Amino acid sequence: MSSRGLALAPPAKTVVVYRNGDPFFPGRKFVVNQRRFLTFEAFLNEVTKSIRAPLAVRNLYTPRHGHRVAQLRDLQDGCQYVAAGFEKLKKLDYLNHRRTEFRGTRNSRNSEGLQGLPFFPIFPSCSNTGSWHALGCFCCSVFRNGDLLSPPFPLPLPKSFPLHWDAVLAVLTEKADLRSGAVNKLCRLDGTQVSGGEELVNGDYYVAVGNEEYKKLPYVELLVPRDAACRTLWYAD
After folding, report:
1. What global pTM score does this model have?
2. Mean pLDDT throughout 81-102?
3. What are the sequence ranges of the domains in the chain?
């Protein structure tokens, strides 16, 4: 490229992208320039991988007013955006960095819940099901698809809040940390797919699955101690 072409190249832009409907995600910084991203679609694909979105990112919105960004040139240096699939923007206070402080706190759980957040809070780890019940929640255990080395992780869910499925998948993506990327579906041990939070059963075991096929393996037999197999949850760091 000639020096004239370099001089005419638009300057790089730095933007921060949040995950739609996730009040806990701190945002991911991206440097956008023509050398790295030739098309808007290439940028969206990178955002999908970097923020571990539960679904492929196809839209960017401004967090306060919900204006849709349609092209790379529409991105403004130093601004923040919310990444979404084909769903609508979920109105949250994405720019309020204190939102991570209410993770697992009872007072903030109540105040945020009263404001109708389209997400559910993550409750602190407890040592037994009685503690979960006292916190007003139930809990499932989740295996990672095809992984017979890692124990299941607990997935606490509130009883008094609606379980928005995109939000559940987002939390699963964070906790499972699958090699294949985002968690796209949750399966029962027999391989049937769970389609909504209302189908989840307290104390049951499930498998977090990415884009790959469900792998039917003896998860409980190999990864759950015998004294925990009879619906008593086993918690692991």
Report:
1. 0.47
2. 74
3. 13-84, 137-222
